[in-house]
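Rather than argue in generalities, we reproduce a single protein record, letters for residues, whole numbers for local backbone shapes, just as it appears below:
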Amino acid sequence: MGILNITPDSFYDGGKCLQVSEAIQKARQMGAEGVDIIDIGAESTRPGAVPISEDEEIKKLVPIIKQIRKEISLPVSVDTYKARVAEKVLDLGVHLINDISGLHFDPRMAEVIAEYKSGVILMHIQGTPRDMQKNPSYQRLIPEIKDYLEEGIKKAQGAGISLDQIIIDPGIGFGKTLVHNLQIIQGLLEFESLDRPILLGPSRKSFIGKVLDLPVEERLEGTLAACVVGIMKGAHMVRVHDVKAAVRACKVADAIFRPQQFEKPLS
């Protein structure tokens, strides 16, 4: 999953794709580099981010989605937790809603997704983007995240969303300390009990910067290491800024951990 932020203030690529032409060029580039899904976000959810209005989010998304749907045949996801925004973009042919709240912020979100029969990514967050990094704490880290995601799955199914349309994301960096993030990746296999595909989003995040003592611009190798370990631990998808490098790293990791795809059929 390739990240296409059309925001001025995202922590890594804010301001790079504000114009429709810039966003389309980036989407084309990701397609050429082997991306499977393009994930578009119009509101930054970095730590401390201030929310924008539904109208502003829709105004940013609509022209870019219309153009991408015309020019690019890849599945498109939209990163939003607002039901009205989801309704608008699903009407334009978006395939997937990436909800950082796991259906916990907007009570209408599940019914909107069910109505359009789209896919949904349920992510875990503690708090909101504005306050999530103010001393996040857990009694039992992974069980609490699993409980939150399970609640989201039940909400989804209760609204009529098919189980096979649901992906889960433990929410690296969303209300977690450095140690929490490392423990989540180390314990990713524990999420298999939820019986849903697992998305991992470590790309260039602050836990990598803290481990390596490097700024966001120098966190590519750390991102690739996190993606590869994530695949070892059961991740089915990774969400990244750097598509070409991640595709190559993940293909090799996949080949090592799932070598059956290269075995010759029996004669």
Notes: Strands lie at 2-5, 38-41, 76-79, 96-99, 119-123, 166-169, 199-200, 237-238. Residues 90 and 116 are 7 Å apart (CA to CA).
